[in-house]
C-alpha cells in the first residue's frame, strides 16, 4: 500500500527539504533545518538553540523493519550478508559502519528468523515510526600502514610483523611434499632423508627468525630516524659506523652501541693528539696561538687552491697549442 510522505520545510528559510539531507535537532522534537541554515547557526525561535545535539537525516533514514534501523542500513545489511557471508557479523557491521556485530545479529534474529510471517519480515508503519536514537558508531579505522606498500620500508607489514619477502623465502618448498607414513622403518634411508630435510628446514626457520629479531630489536625499520641520527655524525665517524655494522649481529644492541661509541671516541682522541703534536712541533703552547695558527693554515690552503685554479686555463691553452703544432 502506498503512502503520501508529508512535506518537510526548513524552520529558518522555509525551503523544501523533503527529498534532501536535513539536520534534525536531537533535543527539540520539531526542529529541522537545511544544511545551509545549520552551517550558519540559525535559530528559528522557540526553545531550539544552535548548541543542541543534532542528527543528520537523509532520504533513506526512515525505518522499514525496525524503528532503530534505517532503510539505508537495511540495504547495507543485505549487501553485507551477500558479500561477507551469513554469520560473519563483525565483517557485516564493518560494512554497514553504524552498527555493532551484536546489533547486526540481534536484528537478523528479530526481523527475519523470529518473524511471524517467516521467511518474510514484518515491516513497520513508516508514517508513525521515528528514529529515536541513531548514534553513528564509527568502525575501527583501517591501518593503511599494514599494507606493504604504505610503510617507509617497502614490503614490511607492521600489523603482522612480517615482510612480504622473508629471509629464506623459499624454505617451505623443500618440505611442502614431504609425507611420513606409519610403516616407515627407523632404519629406512628414506626416513632418515626426510628427517634431514626437516632439520634443514628448521635451520632455515631459525635463520629467518634471527634475522627478523635483529631487525625489530635494533629498530632498523625506523629508517628515517636512523638516517637522521647518522647525518649528525661527521663523515669519518659515519664511515666508521657503516664498516662496523657487520659486527652488529654478534652483539646486543647495548654492546654494539658502546662498541661504536668507543671507536668514535678513540678516533677523536687520536685526531686531537695529532693536532697537539703538530702544535708542539711548531712551537705553539697556548690556545690563542693555536687558534691563530689554524686561521693562518686555512688562509694558506684557500690561497693555494685559488692559485691552482688560476693556472688551469693556462695549462689547458698550452695543451691545445701543443696538440695543434
Automatic annotation (TrEMBL):
Q: Where is the ZZ-type domain?
A: 5-62
Known Pfam families for this protein? Myb_DNA-binding, TADA2A-like_3rd, ZZ_ADA2
Q: Which GO terms describe its cellular component?
A: nucleus; SAGA-type complex
Q: Which residues form the Myb-like domain?
A: 66-112
Transmembrane stretches, by residue range?
A: none
Answer yes or no on keyword Translocase: no
Keyword Transcription assigned to the entry: answer is yes
Q: Which InterPro entries match?
A: ADA2-like_ZZ, Ada2/TADA2, Homeodomain-like_sf, Myb_dom, SANT/Myb, SANT_dom, TADA2A_B-like_dom, Znf_ZZ
Gene3D superfamilies, sorted: 3.30.60.90, Homeodomain-like
Its localization reads: Nucleus
What is the name listed in the Swiss-Prot or TrEMBL entry for this protein? Answer: Transcriptional adapter 2
Amino acid at each position: 500500500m502506498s503512502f503520501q510522505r508529508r512535506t518537510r520545510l526548513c524552520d529558518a528559510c522555509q525551503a523544501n527539504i523533503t527529498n534532501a539531507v536535513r539536520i534534525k535537532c536531537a533535543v527539540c522534537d520539531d526542529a529541522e533545518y537545511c544544511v545551509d541554515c545549520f552551517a550558519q547557526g540559525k535559530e528559528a525561535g522557540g526553545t531550539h538553540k544552535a548548541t543542541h545535539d543534532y542528527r543528520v537525516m537523509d532520504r533513506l533514514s526512515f525505518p522499514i523493519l525496525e524503528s532503530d534501523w534505517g532503510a539505508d542500513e537495511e540495504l547495507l545489511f543485505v549487501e553485507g550478508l551477500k558479500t561477507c557471508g551469513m554469520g560473519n557479523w563483525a565483517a557485516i557491521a564493518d560494512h554497514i559502519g553504524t552498527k555493532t556485530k551484536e546489533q547486526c545479529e540481534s536484528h537478523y534474529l528479530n526481523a527475519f528468523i523470529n518473524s511471524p510471517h517467516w521467511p518474510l519480515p514484518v515491516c513497520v508503519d513508516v508514517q508513525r515510526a521515528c528514529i529515536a536514537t541513531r548514534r553513528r558508531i564509527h568502525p575501527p579505522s583501517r591501518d593503511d600502514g599494514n599494507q606493504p606498500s604504505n610503510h617507509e620500508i617497502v614490503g614490511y607489514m607492521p600489523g603482522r610483523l612480517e615482510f612480504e619477502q622473508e629471509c629464506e623465502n623459499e624454505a617451505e618448498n623443500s618440505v611442502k611434499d614431504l609425507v611420513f607414513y606409519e610403516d616407515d622403518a627407523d632404519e629406512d634411508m628414506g626416513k632418515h632423508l626426510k628427517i634431514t630435510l626437516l632439520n634443514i628446514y628448521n635451520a632455515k626457520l631459525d635463520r629467518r627468525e634471527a634475522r627478523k629479531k635483529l631487525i625489530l630489536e635494533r629498530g632498523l625499520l625506523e629508517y628515517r630516524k636512523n638516517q637522521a641520527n647518522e647525518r649528525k655524525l661527521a663523515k669519518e665517524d659515519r664511515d666508521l659506523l657503516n664498516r662496523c655494522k657487520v659486527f652488529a649481529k654478534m652483539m646486543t644492541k647495548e654492546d654494539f652501541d658502546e662498541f661504536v661509541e668507543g671507536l668514535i671516541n678513540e678516533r677523536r682522541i687520536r685526531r686531537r693528539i695529532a693536532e697537539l703534536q703538530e702544535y708542539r712541533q711548531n712551537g705553539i703552547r697556548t690556545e690563542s696561538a693555536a687558534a691563530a695558527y689554524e686561521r693562518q693554515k686555512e688562509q694558506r690552503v684557500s690561497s693555494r687552491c685559488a692559485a691552482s685554479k688560476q693556472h688551469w686555463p693556462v695549462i689547458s691553452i698550452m695543451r691545445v697549442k701543443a696538440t695543434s703544432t
